[in-house]
TrEMBL record:
GO CC term, one of those recorded: basolateral plasma membrane
Gene: Slc22a7
UniProt entry tagged with the keyword Protein biosynthesis: no
Species, as recorded: Zapornia atra
Molecular functions per Gene Ontology: organic anion transmembrane transporter activity; prostaglandin transmembrane transporter activity
Start and end residues of each Major facilitator superfamily (MFS) profile domain: 87-507
Bilayer-spanning residue ranges: 139-159, 166-186, 192-212, 224-246, 252-271, 337-355, 367-387, 399-418
Reaction catalysis annotation: creatinine(in) = creatinine(out); 3',5'-cyclic GMP(in) = 3',5'-cyclic GMP(out); urate(out) = urate(in); glutarate(in) = glutarate(out)
Name of the protein in its database record: Solute carrier family 22 member 7
Keywords, sorted A to Z: Cell membrane, Ion transport, Membrane, Transmembrane, Transmembrane helix, Transport
Domain of life: Eukaryota
Entries under InterPro entries matching the protein: MFS_dom, MFS_sugar_transport-like, MFS_trans_sf
Family stated for the protein in its record: Belongs to the major facilitator (TC 2.A.1) superfamily. Organic cation transporter (TC 2.A.1.19) family.
Topology in the lipid bilayer: Multi-pass membrane protein
Length: 519
């Protein structure tokens, strides 16, 4: 007997599964509020060099003081990182004149003055992470995703070894602890460490939520469940725009996005451990208890299965030995799946976060851009729900990622003057990007067998988070060539999308239980 047959007897998608999915959607909402928090946490408002007070400035307006103290760009705006070593009073007579010589221009000597009209404070204004320190500001996101990368490896193994629910609870509790410590940071070093540890903890949430729900759902409703769960990511995206709009001070913003993890941890009390995992690991008595509970909630009171039948199923699923990440590469078919999945996940995350962390330049303020980028994901997911069931997982995965890259590349070619067209193409690209992300979670969870599913998801997530960690640093390449970041995102997305054509199709296939099912 296969576990899929048991699901049909107890109800593969009834009240029990709906209840579990609803509870698991709560932490799913919270994930993007942390993963995309860098947009607001590290936002850099307009700024200029601080100008020390001089007696000669007494009768001058602030605009005149800036005119004689700060050099201008060709477009007439004041430079952010340079100042005159001596006031250029002759510019008061004719502001179009050039300074006497370039040697009077120097880097900021007395700190910076920031525009606080949009943000009360961010980490950029707190520790002057601008100009020469701009790289440290972008590195904050890299530290976070570096933590997520490490967490993917750790929680992938731990959830296969000690169970989905226990590790999900651990990750939620750690997310609360490290998130609050981040909010209390008194130095950049403390923030970098605590954000890294928050990333480690949240990686467990990201990694476990979907498989824990999927392992209770039958084949017919698996796609629906995966898409439904991912819609709550988009809701979190939109909520982040609202929370960031209401909370403009970075300490309290961190508190606001971390607190809901506590609610998710409490609600986890009502979620059972995966019966698939329990049977695969020989814990048949617990599995039996959860299966009876599921049948009772779904109105299947005549359901009965013996412990002996479950023990035979466990023996079939556990041919011997324990599994590790090395097991993903021991057999030829599984090796090919692992290599291709890793490339696809890297490309999906690299392009997704490359687009999501570039909220400016679309003719909208950053809060509205965040909201629009979130809301466009919902119709994208709805369309993918139809496509993955009609044309299959493989084609949907490949083309959604390739089209993401082409949209990013199109905006390199479209002139800056066509702002409306650029905005439409960017929003379409964001929709394709989210479609690719929604599909890859569902697709990967169907490709790996139960005994290695979390190891496979952990390995794939490791490469995805590596892509997420590198994505914000690519923005620094604009100093080499302004369009180089977009060209990089485009090339990676198209190449990795093409790799998806090498993966097997899983539409309407049973979830594999052991390695022999794959081979």
């Amino acid at each position: 007997m296969k576990f899929e047959d048991l699901l049909l007897e107890i109800g593969g998608f009834g009240r029990f599964q709906v209840w579990i999915l609803f509870i698991l959607c709560l932490p799913r909402i919270n994930l993007p509020m942390h993963f995309l928090l860098h947009n607001f946490l590290a936002a850099t408002p307009s700024h200029h060099c601080a100008i020390p007070h001089q007696e000669a400035f007494v009768n001058l307006t602030m605009e005149e003081v800036l005119l004689i103290s700060i050099p201008r760009k060709p477009d007439g705006t004041f430079r952010s990182c340079e100042m005159f070593s001596q006031p250029q009073f002759h510019l008061l007579l004719n502001s179009s004149l050039q300074p006497d010589n370039s040697s009077v221009i120097q880097h900021c000597q007395h700190g910076w003055v920031y525009d606080h009209s949009q943000f009360t404070s961010t980490i950029a204004t707190e520790w002057d992470l601008v100009c020469e320190q701009r790289g440290l500001n972008q590195a904050t996101a890299t530290f976070f995703f570096g933590g997520v990368t490490m967490g993917a490896v750790a929680f992938g193994y731990l959830s296969d070894r000690f169970g989905r629910k226990a590790m999900l609870l651990l990750s939620l509790v750690c997310s609360v602890v490290f998130g609050m410590l981040s909010a209390a940071s008194v130095s950049y070093g403390m923030l970098a460490i605590t954000r890294t540890l928050t990333g480690v903890a949240l990686s467990g949430v990201s990694l476990i939520v979907l498989p824990l729900g999927m392992e209770w759902v039958d084949i017919q409703h698996r796609t629906f469940s995966g898409i439904l769960t991912s819609i709550f990511w988009s809701i979190g995206n939109m909520l982040l725009a609202l929370v960031a709009y209401l909370v403009r001070e970075w300490h309290w913003l961190l508190v606001a996005v971390t607190a809901p993890c506590l609610l998710s941890a409490v609600c986890l009390w009502w979620v059972p451990e995966s019966a698939r995992w329990l049977i695969a690991n020989g814990k048949v008595q617990q599995a039996h208890r959860h299966l009876l509970r599921c049948a009772r909630m779904n109105g299947r009171k005549d359901f009965a299965v013996s412990l002996e039948a479950l023990r035979r199923m466990a023996a079939d699923k556990k041919p011997g030995g324990s599994y590790s990440y090395i097991s993903l590469f021991r057999t030829p078919v599984l090796r090919k799946i692992s290599l291709c999945c890793g490339a696809v996940w890297f490309g999906v995350a690299f392009s997704y976060y490359g687009m999501s962390m570039n909220l400016t330049g679309f003719g909208l303020n950053m809060y509205l851009s965040q909201f629009v980028f979130g809301i466009i994901e919902i119709p994208a997911k709805m369309i993918m729900y139809v496509l993955v069931n009609r044309v299959g997982r493989r084609q949907s995965q490949a083309w959604s990622l390739i089209l993401t890259g082409l949209c990013i590349g199109a905006n390199v070619i479209i002139p800056k003057a066509f702002t409306s067209l650029r905005s439409v193409v960017a929003i379409m690209g964001k929709g394709f990007s989210e479609a690719a992300f929604s599909t890859v979670f569902l697709y990967t969870s169907e490709l790996y067998p139960t005994v290695l599913r979390q190891n496979g998801m952990g390995y794939s997530s490791f490469l995805a988070r590596l892509g997420g960690a590198l994505a914000p640093l690519v923005f620094l390449l604009d100093e080499v060539w302004r369009s180089l970041p977009e060209v990089t995102y485009c090339g990676v997305a198209v190449c990795c999308g093409s790799v998806a054509f090498l993966l097997p199709e899983t539409l309407n296939a049973r979830l594999p239980e052991g390695i022999e099912d794959i081979e």
